[in-house]
Design goal:
single chain, mainly alpha, 3 domains, 13 helices, rod-shaped
Length: 285
């Protein structure tokens, strides 16, 4: 038995072992392709390669092409899991990648509230690609603006003219990484996707000017409808037409931004307190 024949037998046995270990379509294609190539080469070598190729003619090239195609499909099936993009997972399944140093407070932008919401259990960076996919596929433009508000970022730092949604998300994530807020971003995404129920929000007497802006935003959304927000604006002497009244989410966010920029958020909190003699549920219409 020649060394070449032994080598052929070893190759077939290797592919047979791969198929028996994981009997899938890809491994069966690889085994069939290699076995056919060995049989064809042995057949041609036994009966005279040149004569048989001349005798078979056009069909030889068909068989050769099929073998090459089978080899290409087998190779792609093995390599695809290594180069395929990661599947989108629910945000609750995201895990921190590596631990980092304790997070420093991000610089406060002028006229914009600084997010002081509780950080993620640890301040480690989350898988950026998974977080991007979560925002891209599950958030609308209003949700992303809420994210910007909850992180205490000035909209002008991430929003530009004629900007695509992809670019907006990329700018937001870049700035979150720069300010070491990627953990806060993941938490804010989770809270927007699953807003806290009204009974999980802090009691009114526990809300103060130092409370996280996102708590006030969730409070307004939970206890007021659009008419109630309009009445709040009137009580605070805010020109209703200065607020974006397209929907409740944008109105609540714009009202808080208006008050934070003018250092008047304490007036809203005083108006909401039970001692003011008004119930937010009644004011919600």
């Amino acid at each position: 038995m020649s060394l070449l024949l032994i080598a052929k037998a070893i190759v077939v046995l290797v592919f047979l072992g791969m198929f028996l270990r994981r009997p899938r379509i890809i491994t069966s294609i690889g085994l069939l392709t290699v076995t056919s190539a060995v049989l064809l080469d042995t057949f041609l070598g036994t009966f005279g390669r040149e004569e048989m190729i001349s005798e078979i003619g056009f069909f030889y090239y068909i068989v050769t092409g099929m073998l090459l195609g089978g080899g290409a499909v087998w190779a792609w099936g093995l390599l695809y899991p290594l180069i395929a993009p990661p599947a989108v997972k629910p945000l609750s399944m995201l895990q921190p990648v590596t631990p980092t140093e304790p997070k420093q407070e991000a610089p406060k932008s002028a006229g914009t509230p600084t997010a002081t919401s509780a950080p993620a259990p640890d301040a480690s960076p989350y898988d950026r690609q998974m977080l991007y996919q979560e925002i891209r596929h599950r958030f609308g433009s209003e949700d992303i603006l809420d994210l910007i508000f909850d992180l205490g970022i000035n909209e002008n730092e991430v929003v530009t003219i004629n900007q695509s949604m992809d670019q907006l998300i990329t700018n937001l994530m870049d700035l979150a990484v720069e300010h070491e807020q990627i953990g806060d971003l993941a938490l804010a995404v989770e809270r927007i996707l699953t807003p806290p129920s009204p009974n999980k929000l802090p009691r009114l007497e526990h809300i103060s000017e130092s409370s996280p802006p996102t708590v006030l935003r969730h409070y307004l959304l939970a206890f007021f409808d659009l008419g109630g927000l309009q009445q709040l604006a009137a009580d605070l002497n805010i020109d209703w037409e200065q607020l974006s009244s397209a929907n409740k989410k944008s109105t609540a966010r714009e009202m808080l931004l208006y008050l934070y920029r003018r250092n008047r958020v304490n007036e809203l909190i005083d108006l909401l307190q039970p001692t003011a003699g008004r119930s937010p549920k009644l004011r919600g219409g």
